[in-house]
Design goal:
Layout (H helix, E strand, L loop, with lengths): L13 H10 L10 H25 L1 H28 L5 H26 L4 H28 L11
Helix pairs in contact: 1-2, 2-3, 4-5
């Protein structure tokens, strides 16, 4: 009898996916299905809207609640993103490397702006150009991550589980 070419990963319903993400909030090993990732993403997006509404209505008290919600969902979001990358046979450093790259890029922008100002160039034009380049890099990264998050997971075991 022929074996199926691909065994689909288990699909998580929304409450189950949210529960799994909070249970595995510091688990950066293993894999996460597309449905698990996107249900948790939607949950965090809706919480963000609620937090924004609370900030608008309640002021500082709402901002404190919104900050607590953001803090409570940061690690689970990070871990499910890493596990989703693992499901597509990619390293979690696609997330961490991007944020670590901001340090040298920030230093480079500061040094170039200081050099432009020392040469008499208008700092506004230099800053606009540098931020334009940074914007294009961030858009490229965002599109790449969107493609990764929407991609089908690798069939069978991969190097991450």
């Amino acid at each position: 009898m022929a074996q199926p070419l691909r065994v689909p990963p288990p699909r998580a319903a929304s409450p189950e996916a949210i529960k799994v993400c909070f249970q595995n909030y510091v688990t950066f090993r293993g894999r996460a299905s597309r449905s698990e990732y996107w249900w948790f993403f939607l949950f965090c997006l809706l919480l963000g809207f609620v937090g924004g509404f609370l900030e608008a209505v309640m002021g500082r008290d709402g901002a404190a609640l919104s900050g607590l919600v953001s803090l409570a969902t940061f690690l689970p979001s990070l871990s499910v993103t890493v596990r989703r990358l693992h499901d597509t046979d990619r390293s979690g450093w696609w997330v961490g490397g991007f944020y670590l790259a901001f340090i040298p890029v920030g230093l480079l922008i500061g040094l170039l702006a200081a050099a432009a100002q020392a040469n008499g160039s208008p700092p506004d034009a230099t800053a606009l150009g540098l931020f334009g380049i940074l914007f294009l890099l961030m858009m490229g990264y965002s599109i790449t991550m969107l493609v990764f998050m929407c991609s089908r997971g690798t069939p069978g075991p991969n190097r991450f589980g």
